[in-house]
From TrEMBL:
SUPFAM superfamilies: Glyoxalase/Bleomycin resistance protein/Dihydroxybiphenyl dioxygenase. PROSITE patterns: VOC. Residues 9-136 form the VOC domain. It comes from the Bacteria. InterPro entries: Glyas_Bleomycin-R_OHBP_Dase, Glyas_Fos-R_dOase_dom, GlyoxalaseI/FosfomycinResist, VOC_core. This is VOC family protein.
Length: 141
């Protein structure tokens, strides 16, 4: 069956967050995302993440309050967000995270992604959402 479309990339991911400003600060300062639009009447902030977007909605905002109980230890709204990065320098990444009081969930490991097998490092944002920083494909030979 022919589809009338082709998936090209992730357009955006939406996280429901407990403290909107704390999360905006995290995504700006730790990951280098840029705020491109705020829609305060909805409790929504749009951040640029490369060619994609990360949208943050406040649990107490118009949109966030529609989703029920928020993220916590006993449940998640999303499993994880994977951001393809370049370069992938594990010691530099770990040091950067540490400067922001963040620990990785272990050493980098090779995982499968859009470009094939490559290094990944995992950590959590302020709301406990898992973030994966993904490096380039590892060519074996």
């Amino acid at each position: 069956m022919d589809r009338p479309f082709v998936v090209e990339r992730i357009d955006h991911l939406v996280f429901r967050v407990r403290d909107l400003q704390r999360s905006v600060d995290f995504y700006r300062e730790v990951l280098g995302c840029e705020v491109v639009r705020r829609r305060d009447h909805l409790g929504l902030v749009h951040l640029r993440a490369g060619v994609s977007m990360i949208d943050l909605i406040s649990l107490d905002g118009t949109l966030g309050s529609q989703g029920g109980r928020g993220p916590g230890e006993d449940g998640r709204n999303v499993d994880h967000l994977c951001l393809r990065i370049e370069p992938f320098d594990e010691p530099a990444l770990v040091a950067h995270l540490a400067r922001h009081g963040i620990s990785s969930r272990g050493p980098a490991e090779v995982n499968f992604g859009a470009e094939g097998d490559g290094p990944s490092l995992y950590f959590r944002d302020p709301d406990g959402n898992a973030i994966e920083l993904k490096g380039p494909s590892v060519v074996s030979g």
